[in-house]
């Protein structure tokens, strides 16, 4: 990914990839396709703009409330917050 959000990989082994994403206001992940099923765990309350081939949507994120998505999602994730925002992404290989 080529976005401006800071990605820190904590674990990358034969079973999972665990990455923390930290965003300043307006930072993004860059356009990408999810190669694995994944779980996102928000580290704080916040709002993300999701850009897909079908347009833009916004997601309200709640600290500690995880969600699951299947592989193949194509999108750019952009912080829509006035301050720092972060989440953990766990990819299942």
Describe the overall structure:
- It is a single chain.
- The protein is an all-beta fold and 93 residues long.
- The chain is built from no helices and nine strands.
- The strands form two sheets. Strands 1-2-9-4-7 form a five-stranded antiparallel β-sheet, with no helix packed on it. Strands 3-8-5-6 form a four-stranded antiparallel β-sheet, with no helix packed on it.
- The two termini are 18 Å apart.
- The model has no long low-confidence stretch (mean pLDDT 97).
- What is the assembly state of the chains in this entry? single chain
Helix content class: under 10%
> How many DSSP helices?
0
**What is the ordering of alpha helices and beta strands?**
EEEEEEEEE
Shape: globular
Mean pLDDT: 97
Beta fraction of the residues?
over 45%
Q: Which regions contain 5 or more consecutive residues with pLDDT less than 50?
A: none
Strands in their spatial order, largest beta sheet: 1-2-9-4-7
Structural class: mainly beta
Biggest β-sheet strands, sense, barrel: 5 strands, antiparallel
Distance between the termini: 18 Å
Number of strand elements: 9
Please tell me how large the radius of gyration is.
12 Å
Q: Which helices and strands occur, and which strands form pairs?
A:
Elements: E1 6-12, E2 16-23, E3 32-33, E4 37-42, E5 46-52, E6 55-61, E7 67-69, E8 74-79, E9 85-92
Antiparallel strand pairs: 1-2, 2-9, 3-8, 4-7, 4-9, 5-6, 5-8
């Amino acid at each position: 990914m080529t976005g401006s959000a800071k990605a820190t990989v904590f674990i990358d082994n034969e079973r999972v990839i665990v990455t923390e994403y930290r965003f300043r206001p307006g930072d993004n992940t860059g356009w990408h396709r999810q190669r694995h099923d994944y779980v996102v765990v928000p580290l704080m309350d916040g709002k993300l703009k999701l850009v897909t081939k079908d347009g833009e949507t916004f997601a309200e994120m709640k600290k500690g409330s995880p969600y699951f998505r299947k592989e193949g999602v194509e999108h750019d994730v952009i912080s829509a917050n006035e301050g720092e925002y972060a989440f953990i992404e766990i990819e299942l290989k």
